[in-house]
Amino acid sequence: MRSTSRMPRPKALLGTGVILAFALTACEGEGAGSADPDPDADPSDLTAGVAMPTQTYERWLNDGAAVEEGLEELGYNVDLQYADDDIPTQSQQIDQMITQEVDVLIIASIDGSALTGQLDAAADAGIPVIAYDRLLTNSEDVDFYVTFDNYEVGVNQANALLYGLGVLDENFEEAQDAPEETLNIELFAGSLDDNNSHLFWEGAIDTLEPYIEDGTLEVTSGQTDIEQAATQRWEQETAQERMENLLTTHYSGDEELHGVLAPADPLSRGIIQALQNDGWGDTIEDGLPVVTGQDAEIASVSLIADGVQHSTIFKDTRQLADEAIVAAEAYLSGEEPEANDTETYDNGEIVVPSYLLDVEMVLEDNYEEILIDSEYYTQEQVDSGQL
């Protein structure tokens, strides 16, 4: 049976993202919201257009529902559309929202560079545009961006991997009893047309690179470029197929695989399925390599509780939806939303005023504290792996 060295998991969350201490007033750019809204308008006369990328991912269903519910509770009308990961469909949905004269747009894009025509039309119509979690690129017609610190997501994923491998201790410092042999890993990335994929990758690689350079880690396949590791549309089946190919090509003999950097939970589950099918064990305890993740999807949290998936990154989409609602209400009231980052997110045309939220690393020994105690999930949901 294949095995890997590993350290005990921590009892409490350590090494999470950077704490954001204060907010700065957003700079007025040349975004879409150039027309003067009526600050005295009744909310029932105003409509927010909300464009989400897909219903395939659990998190996007949650995001869309949270934004819709929050805005409707404030009295606004909401036009919520899902595009099933089809760029022409999303473009048409946003075109229709503009034609129907929505008063603000909240867009979680499939491809952040594919909507320049729609953003130009929104600007002409005086409709403010809020990029939701995924940056809208190559356009000056983006007013605001709400997201998580996506570089820190990658840092946390890499630290989770290093901790699971026993390279780092429970304080995320160099472990005194770290394995002496070189540990073999493989790297996965998200979809190249999602700007966040590049930020996740950058944070992870910046963290892992010193350990690769000093020989602590080795990417056995040699596939260390994001283009080689990318997973188009974040598809679970694509990740599973690539993992199967990596196992066949590089691990068909006695070569050990100790860990896999996976940037999202559906990819993690596809990778784990490939590993289990190839006889690498059912759980980490009996030899399954350490696999990271992101989004704290209920199926993956259940796997973490059972010792199958090592970790995930929790991005509390309730907070993200709240910030999107705050920004939308500001524009609908004729005001400017507040940003806590006015330097980082250059979309190729402008630096977009942004509001960044923190992230948390979820492990077997702290999922209850982070997810159950905060009422994000119930224990029954975790036990069943279903909402």
UniProtKB/TrEMBL annotation:
Residues 49-336 form the Periplasmic binding protein domain. Keywords: Signal. One of its GO terms (cellular component) is outer membrane-bounded periplasmic space. The keyword Phosphoprotein does not apply. PROSITE patterns: PROKAR_LIPOPROTEIN. GO terms for molecular function: carbohydrate binding. Pfam families: Peripla_BP_4. Residues 1-28 form the signal peptide. InterPro entries: Bact_Solute-Bind_Prot2, ChvE-like, Peripla_BP_I, SBP_2_dom. It is found in: Cell envelope. This is Sugar ABC transporter substrate-binding protein. It comes from Nesterenkonia cremea. The lineage of its organism: Bacteria, Bacillati, Actinomycetota, Actinomycetes, Micrococcales.
